[in-house]
Design brief:
- Belongs to the inositol phosphokinase (IPK) family.
- This protein is an alpha+beta fold.
- The chain is 30% helix and 20% strand.
- Strands 1-6-5-7-4-3-2 form a seven-stranded antiparallel sheet.
- Helix 10 runs antiparallel to helix 12.
């Protein structure tokens, strides 16, 4: 993460208070919500350079890059810490923050009951205590949802706890390592799930290798061990988190990276089926558009010579709310077209997390590779085959 020199932060009333992004299902860096259509994350130079020089062919499979912002810690009169963004000139478009936010309400509720992040009491630790569980057990639970204030619908009150976990850990680290007037740089990126009412998200860590060229020997050994002990080694892909909307219960079924690491090949197959299941039926109409987009992505990856997408993830996204039924025929009028369920289903495939991506021309090259990324291709091919098996009823 890039940290700038201390400076006068100016009138923060014109800044944007960043919100925890409640649809973050994986990763360890905190992803924050800037506005309805924009998220931001700590700037890592290699990832910044990747977005600045993104090949045209890959743009349809990555979040739209919107520039950068400076961010600083701010403590309110109650002692609660938050991150405030001050947009830079390179930020594109008009960015407005909503006046009402479920994310802020949830985060403030957790802080109010614990005395704030900076007070030495952890919100999730308090939440764990209220559930008579240890903090570790709460965070590592495979299935979890937390309901806030009365009066909201069950669907509105359900969220994935992973984003709050990352946000709380990030705030704790920042307030312990840096003064409050220290400026940090964040990337502004498209919120790829903003168009979905109940976004179902699968975060897949791609490739057979997860460490970057600049990794220490200790980090290299740790990541190689994780790959060897998971489906990364045999399939080139493993689950790093997911949320699936359960239509009848009106909440998300959530799985975290620890669940994904323990899966066998058979378990991985079953987890993909679970990702496509709404609690009542398997959403088979999603398979055709997912397979079509994955095949298109495979062609793009095969065309990117020298790129190695170490430790990057692939998001599979669809809406947990099923598409509306086709319009009824009006008396005496022509019959409306009858699109297939697959045509109605909207899905999205996006590559994310490029902090360890290397390619010819990147400024910190540990090595220059020839040809496309074999580990990523291996993972994509296996993912395609497993989804094809599900479609074929195997």
């Amino acid at each position: 993460m890039v940290v700038q020199d201390s400076a006068d932060t100016g009138d923060v009333r014109g800044g944007v208070q960043l919100e925890p992004f409640l649809h973050q299902v994986g990763g360890h860096l905190s992803v924050l919500q800037y506005d309805e259509h924009t998220v931001c994350k700590p700037l890592v130079p290699l990832e910044h350079m990747f977005y600045e020089s993104l090949p045209q062919a890959m743009k349809q499979f990555t979040p739209r890059y919107k520039g950068t912002v400076t961010v600083h810690l701010q403590r309110d009169s109650r002692g609660h810490l938050s991150l405030v963004a001050s947009p830079l000139q390179e930020a594109q478009g008009s960015l407005k923050v909503s006046s009402e936010s479920a994310a802020v309400a949830i985060w403030e509720t957790l802080q109010k009951t614990t005395g704030g992040v900076g007070s030495g009491t952890r919100p999730l630790a308090h939440l764990a205590h209220s559930l008579s569980e240890s903090p570790a057990k709460t965070l590592l639970r495979s299935e979890f949802h937390f309901n806030t204030a009365a009066g909201e619908s069950q669907a509105e009150r359900s969220f994935n706890p992973w984003g709050l976990h990352c946000h709380q850990a990030h705030l704790t680290r920042l307030c312990s390592e840096y003064p409050e007037n220290k400026l940090h740089r964040f990337l502004l990126l498209e919120n790829v799930v903003s168009q979905y009412k109940h976004p179902c998200i699968l975060d897949l860590k791609m490739g057979t290798r997860q460490h970057g060229d600049d990794a220490s020997e200790e980090k290299k050994a740790r990541h190689m061990r994780k790959c060897a002990q998971s489906t990364s080694a045999c399939l080139g892909v493993r689950i790093c988190g997911m949320q699936v909307y359960q239509a009848a219960k009106k909440h998300f079924l959530c799985k975290d990276k620890y669940y994904g690491r323990k899966l066998t090949v058979a378990g991985f197959h079953q987890a993909l089926r679970q990702f496509l299941h709404d609690g009542a039926r398997l959403r088979t109409e999603l398979l055709e558009p997912i397979l079509r987009q994955l095949r298109a992505l495979l062609l793009v990856i095969r065309s990117q010579s020298s790129y190695r997408f170490y430790s990057s993830s692939l998001l599979l996204i669809y809406d947990g709310q099923e598409p509306a039924e086709p319009a009824e025929r009006t008396p005496g009028g022509p019959a409306p077209p009858e699109p297939s369920q697959a045509a109605l289903a909207k899905v999205d495939i996006r590559m994310i997390d490029f902090a360890h991506t290397t390619y010819k021309g990147s400024w910190r090259e540990g090595a220059i590779y020839d040809g496309p990324d074999p580990g990523y291709i291996f993972g994509l091919e296996n993912l395609l085959q497993i989804l094809q098996d599900i479609q074929d009823g195997e």
